[in-house]
């Protein structure tokens, strides 16, 4: 839901990796094409933003803690700026794809307005089983629709947009993937391609949980009062429009060898409520074991706080997706290999230490911010807040934030690590493209919502132009 494009250098890196036509100058028009930015200051910057597109982008910070956190970062030397503009290094209140208080999904922005078109049919309760390929040409799609098998034949081409997990799974089920893996499952190999490799994701840690002396945070109780509900239904405003409590984001360069202008850590800054004993929001949202939650957060129930979540933007660790079986209903095997490269732990360590500096700022002191100092079970052998303690905490409690990319990597057809070419065509297969986060050769430096929409916009032009 957050609207973050990433760093312009991300796309220039893609171009250098062999993705012709995907440099920042090439993709910026596609970000702007769909955008309807409600922030008048941003929208007036026509070099980087636009308005009147189908995808509404709005400011959504809702509590006073948003300003507290913004000032704290500013006092550390971060510039307040538009992170989707000329420069990314700095801090801003979040924007998200929200319109009049409601999530403005791609279905609402793009699909529903097109539902009356004669060349569009949307099938719900349908599960794709595989793509049927004859020779080297994709001819049809096998689906289970309302419990019955169907074969859908195509006249031109198939565009696969099942996501980083689903697209990789479907290609392998269809005989497009690593030869040895497919042979193990007795799937006839149509194209030996590295499908399922290069899995990347963003990781964050919840270590920077600060207690504060204010009750101004988002809770289930204060978001369901009559006044709040009336404000939402009449004006589309109020605390109920929060994007999961995230009030601001900041981008930082913590590694000296990170290129100038690039970020390697993103801070997701929450004005959070730790829930009641019945809700136990943190336990559920972060998937923390009950005994660990009780020790680390049990004493914080019914209180407000700030969670500063350092997020690893440019991971060195990559994982894989493989098939569990030839049954399309079976979940695939997802092995993210988080933190398998020591550099990733060290970068998150530096992100945590950068975030701890916020406690010394006048702004955070104004709300008596203090760190949750409960020692994580399993890390008691290390001195609290020592580098080894922080490493231990990260290795136990790092959390993937659902930004998986890369399993159908885009690149030159001659590159043995590529699955699709820069026109998003599956290499060696006629009439088949992939258009989703899986084609990213390298994960972007920021949330993946806006980049995925950009990929869809560019894919539509590639198809229309017959490329």
Summarize the structure.
The protein is α+β, with helices and mostly antiparallel strands and 467 residues long. It has 14 helices and 22 strands. The strands form 7 sheets. Strands 3, 13, 14, 15, 16, 17, 20 and 21 form an 8-stranded antiparallel sheet that branches. The chain has a 3-stranded mixed sheet with strand order 1-2-4. A 3-stranded antiparallel sheet has the order 7-8-9.
Explain how this protein is built.
The structure is a single chain. With 467 residues, the protein is α+β, with helices and mostly antiparallel strands. The protein is built from 14 helices and 22 strands. It is globular, with a radius of gyration of 23 Å. The two termini are 30 Å apart. The model has no long low-confidence stretch (mean pLDDT 91).
Notable characteristics:
single chain, 467 residues, alpha+beta, eight-stranded antiparallel sheet, three-stranded mixed sheet, 14 helices, 22 strands, 28% helix
Please work out how many helical segments DSSP would assign: 14
State the total count of DSSP E strands. Answer: 22
What is the mean predicted local confidence, pLDDT?
A: 91
Q: What's the gyration radius in Å?
A: 23 Å
Structural class: alpha+beta
Biggest β-sheet, characterized?
Answer: 8 strands, antiparallel
Strand residues, percent: 15-25%
Low-confidence stretches: none
Q: Give the % helix.
A: 25-40%
> What distance separates the N and C termini?
30 Å
Shape: globular
Q: Strands, helices and their partners?
A:
Elements lengths: L7 H9 L7 H11 E3 L2 H4 L11 E5 L4 H12 L14 E4 L1 E2 L1 E2 L2 E2 L2 H6 L14 E9 L2 E9 L2 E6 L4 E3 L2 H11 L2 E2 L1 H6 L6 E2 L10 E2 L3 E4 L14 H10 L10 E7 L12 E9 L7 H6 L3 H8 L6 E9 L7 E3 L10 E3 L6 H15 L5 H4 L4 E2 L15 H11 L1 E2 L31 E3 L14 H16 L3
Parallel strand pairs: 1-2, 10-22, 11-12
Antiparallel strand pairs: 2-4, 3-15, 5-6, 7-8, 8-9, 13-17, 13-21, 14-17, 14-20, 15-16, 16-17, 18-19
Helix pairs in contact: 2-14, 11-13
């Amino acid at each position: 839901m957050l609207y973050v494009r990433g760093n312009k250098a991300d796309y220039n890196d893609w171009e250098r990796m062999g993705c012709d036509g995907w440099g920042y100058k090439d993709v910026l028009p596609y970000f702007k094409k769909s955008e309807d930015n409600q922030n008048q200051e941003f929208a007036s910057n026509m070099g980087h933003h636009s308005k009147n597109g189908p995808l509404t982008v709005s400011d959504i910070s809702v509590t006073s803690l948003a300003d507290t956190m913004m000032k704290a970062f500013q006092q550390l030397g971060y510039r307040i700026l538009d992170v989707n503009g000329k420069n990314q290094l700095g801090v801003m209140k979040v924007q998200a794809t929200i319109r009049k208080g409601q999530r403005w999904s791609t279905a609402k922005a793009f699909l529903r307005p097109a539902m009356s078109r004669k060349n569009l049919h949307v099938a719900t309760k349908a599960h794709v089983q595989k793509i049927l390929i004859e020779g080297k040409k994709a001819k049809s799609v096998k689906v289970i629709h309302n419990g019955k098998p169907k074969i859908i034949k195509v006249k031109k081409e198939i565009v696969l947009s099942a996501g980083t997990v689903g697209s990789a799974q479907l290609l392998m089920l269809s005989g497009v993937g690593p030869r040895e893996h497919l042979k193990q499952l007795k799937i006839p190999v149509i194209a030996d391609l590295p499908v399922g490799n290069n899995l990347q994701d963003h990781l964050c840690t919840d270590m920077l949980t600060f207690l504060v002396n204010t009750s101004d945070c988002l809770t289930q109780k204060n978001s369901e009062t009559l006044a709040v509900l009336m404000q939402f239904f009449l004006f589309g405003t109020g605390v109920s429009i929060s994007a999961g409590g995230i009030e601001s984001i900041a981008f930082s360069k913590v590694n000296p060898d990170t290129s100038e202008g690039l970020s390697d850590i993103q801070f997701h800054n929450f004005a959070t409520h730790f829930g009641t004993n019945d809700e136990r929001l943190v336990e559920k949202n972060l998937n923390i074991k009950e005994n660990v939650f009780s020790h680390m957060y049990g004493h914080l129930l019914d209180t407000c706080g700030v969670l500063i979540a350092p997020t690893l933007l440019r991971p060195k660790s990559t994982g894989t997706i493989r098939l569990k079986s030839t049954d399309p209903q079976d979940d695939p095997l997802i092995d993210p290999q988080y933190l398998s490269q020591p550099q990733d732990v060290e970068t998150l360590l530096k992100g945590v230490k950068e975030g701890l500096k916020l406690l010394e700022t006048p702004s955070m002191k104004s709300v008596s911010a203090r760190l949750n100092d409960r020692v994580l079970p399993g890390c008691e052998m290390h001195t609290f807040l020592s580098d080894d303690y922080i490493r231990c905490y990260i290795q136990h409690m790092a959390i993937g934030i659902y930004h998986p990319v890369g399993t159908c990597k885009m690149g030159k057809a001659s590159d043995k690590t590529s699955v699709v070419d820069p026109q998003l065509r599956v290499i060696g297969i006629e009439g088949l493209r992939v258009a989703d986060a899986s084609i990213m050769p390298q994960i972007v430096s920021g949330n993946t919502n806006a980049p995925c929409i950009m990929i869809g916009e560019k894919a539509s032009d590639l198809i229309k132009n017959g490329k």
